[in-house]
Amino acid sequence: MKSHREELWFHVPGRRAFINITPQVEAALAASGIREGLCLVNAMHITASVFINDDEPGLHHDYEAWLEHLAPHAPVDRYRHNRTGEDNGDAHLKRQVMGREVVVAVTEGRLDFGPWEQIFYGEFDGGRRKRVLVKIIGE
Amino acid sequence: MKSHREELWFHVPGRRAFINITPQVEAALAASGIREGLCLVNAMHITASVFINDDEPGLHHDYEAWLEHLAPHAPVDRYRHNRTGEDNGDAHLKRQVMGREVVVAVTEGRLDFGPWEQIFYGEFDGGRRKRVLVKIIGE
Amino acid sequence: MKSHREELWFHVPGRRAFINITPQVEAALAASGIREGLCLVNAMHITASVFINDDEPGLHHDYEAWLEHLAPHAPVDRYRHNRTGEDNGDAHLKRQVMGREVVVAVTEGRLDFGPWEQIFYGEFDGGRRKRVLVKIIGE
């Protein structure tokens, strides 16, 4: 069994963003030399997500508006977590809806995707450097 | 390390449905000959889910009503994604709540389930043929 | 390839709780002797979750209030599932928001975590003994 590990780093200047990280994950897979196996991609931070969906700006706008409706950022005192001095209580909730991680099959050396699947980093509390882990195991 | 790959195909005539796919995943596992490992089951489409829960029609009715409350289908112009000509903006949101994939342990040649766990395909934008990927790795 | 399996048992006296299970998962990993691989941790029951987030009591209060807002427990007859004689319809919905499972990378014999990642068991229908599965594969 082979394994391969990479960290991807991001710095979103604003609070929230969705970034297509498929090319970076494909590059990690190519570097791994793994042909058959599983590829885990997870946010290493608890106010961010990794998820798979469509690379369509209108959809990303819809996600943004919907998540803000489900878990509004303001007023920040609505979240007890923010009594710690943080203002990111909403980000911990939004991340649960969108998920921490994806596991993607590796087949014949490629990410085994359906026609529209793309991997995204979802940032809900930006303004600093944060990481995504790529771990691939297989042969 | 062994690996095994299968696609399961579905055609839901209406817009939404939940289909128990546990027997098909068990058949894929039997065909694989894998005794110990991990089994990934994921929707290959971004308006569908794979999830694990109970095979109880009342619960499926509750999921349907709850998801429609969280992310209503109509009016379709509430979603910017639908400006592309689609009417499935809601399906992309519902799929995030229910999830893209499950990873199930394989132990002694069987899906290592608790007493009520069953795997479902959740369709949120039917009317055409769509796929689920089963990828099993192990020994 | 090596594999290792453990069950963790919990008995939450009340209806709901969040329990940090990171030490038990780390102990399972140490017992496995696996240095590189993937660690699956999943609820074996369909009214419970395993998820990764922050070990901060204010945040757990926020999750509790938010999930109760998204999928209220009462009145229990709001859920068709409860016509079966259960009163846990809400728990099946809450579990979908928080997720069934996490997959954690194993690197150099350790759970490959970001700075604040901790694994939690989320109970939404307590009052009886329930299980979490830990399955680790790798070398």
TrEMBL record, chains A, B, C:
Signal peptide limits: none
Q: Which InterPro entries match?
A: UPF0047_YjbQ-like, YjbQ-like_sf
For this protein, the record's NCBIfam families field holds:
TIGR00149_YjbQ
Q: How is this protein named in the record?
A: YjbQ family protein
Q: Which organism is it from?
A: Dissulfurirhabdus thermomarina
